[in-house]
Design goal:
single chain, about 325 residues, alpha/beta, TIM Barrel, eight-stranded parallel β-barrel, two-stranded antiparallel sheet, 12 helices, globular
Length: about 325
């Protein structure tokens, strides 16, 4: 990890090969399909597979939404190399001691493939609807900071006391410890006052939400030593005659107000678009596809977009 806050391409992060994760929110998708999509993403060479952490589909009529941690446990047993995580976990849903126990257990089940994504919770209607204390935005941010403190202590396996504003633990400990020496922490968001200070203090990765990508250069210097990942709505145009349909699907499912400017194009066009994003300092591209990540799209993207970008990175004389 670079010691510089710069996002210039001369730093260490810019020398790493780009990685691609795929985000498949479990909305109107059954468990069997989620397993098959994670397996297809692994086969296609994706770095990571991400699910949502909501009790419902925000802003949508009631529909099936699988519980995220149980789902990730199933995906861990059905895959062997792809990393797994939430984009991002909702901190108010779980006490930090329970969260630490769940994370260590999933890391054990997956043989060290968990990436722990967390946010302080921004969908207030969900808290009201399902009976969670809402608190203020600042209180939820402070609670996430305490959760991250407790996680670090729990993951040592040693007894500890913790006396915070939101959480108090006496003689607590976390055993078993995770397989990984450190589970990578991803903190998602784009707020200068409530999110970026947590990123600077705790995160291995800052996950820039799509709506904040236009401010990436402004926010990146606030991230400390965290590496940069970012979210993208992606439309893969396999046949030119389908471009309008792909564009329409993106507009319906991932509006620009929430996801930022979508990247829509043929594989060759997408290679150039992601190359430009890589030059901004993004190391991990987390994509959500126009068709929700069908096996055909995962295979096409992995072969004709992700793989050429990795090769071109190496061809510049860079060690991946």
């Amino acid at each position: 990890m670079s010691d510089s806050n710069s996002i210039e391409t001369g730093d260490e992060s810019a020398s790493a090969a780009p990685q691609f994760g795929v985000y498949v929110p479990q909305i109107k998708i059954d468990a069997r399909t989620m397993v098959s999509r994670a397996q297809a993403a692994e086969k296609a060479g994706f770095h990571s597979f991400w699910v949502m952490d909501h009790l419902y589909a925000p802003g949508a009529p009631p529909t099936d939404t699988l519980e995220s941690w149980t789902l990730l446990s199933a995906l861990a047993g059905a895959t062997s190399t792809i990393r797994l995580g939430h984009l991002v976990g909702c901190n108010p849903f779980r006490h930090p001691a329970l969260l630490a126990k769940m994370a260590a257990t999933l890391d054990q089940l997956s043989a060290g493939r968990l990436d722990l994504g967390l946010g302080w919770g921004s969908v207030e209607d969900e808290f009201v609807q399902f009976g969670f204390p809402v608190g203020t935005r600042r209180e939820r941010s402070q609670a996430l900071g305490e959760t991250l403190d407790v996680l670090e202590l729990m993951f040592t396996g040693e007894p500890f006391d913790y006396d915070g504003t939101h959480f108090r633990l006496e003689g607590a400990y976390g055993l078993p410890v995770p397989v990984q020496k450190r589970i990578p922490i991803h903190i998602g968001g784009g707020g200068k006052q409530l999110t970026m200070p947590l990123v600077e203090r705790h995160a291995d990765w800052w996950n820039c939400v799509g709506s904040a990508r236009s401010r990436l250069s402004e926010l990146a210097p606030l991230r400390g030593n965290a590496r940069i990942s970012a979210q993208y709505a992606v439309g893969v145009v396999d046949v030119e005659s389908r471009r309008d349909d792909v564009t329409a699907r993106i507009g319906r499912r991932m509006p620009e107000s929430a996801w930022g400017r979508a990247l829509i194009g043929t594989p060759d066009e997408l290679v150039e678009m992601f190359r430009a994003e890589r030059d901004l300092g993004v190391e991990l591209f987390i994509v959500r596809f126009h068709d929700l990540g069908t096996e055909a799209t995962l295979e096409l993207f992995g072969k004709e977009v992700a793989a050429p970008l990795k090769v071109s990175n190496q061809s510049r004389g860079v060690c991946a």
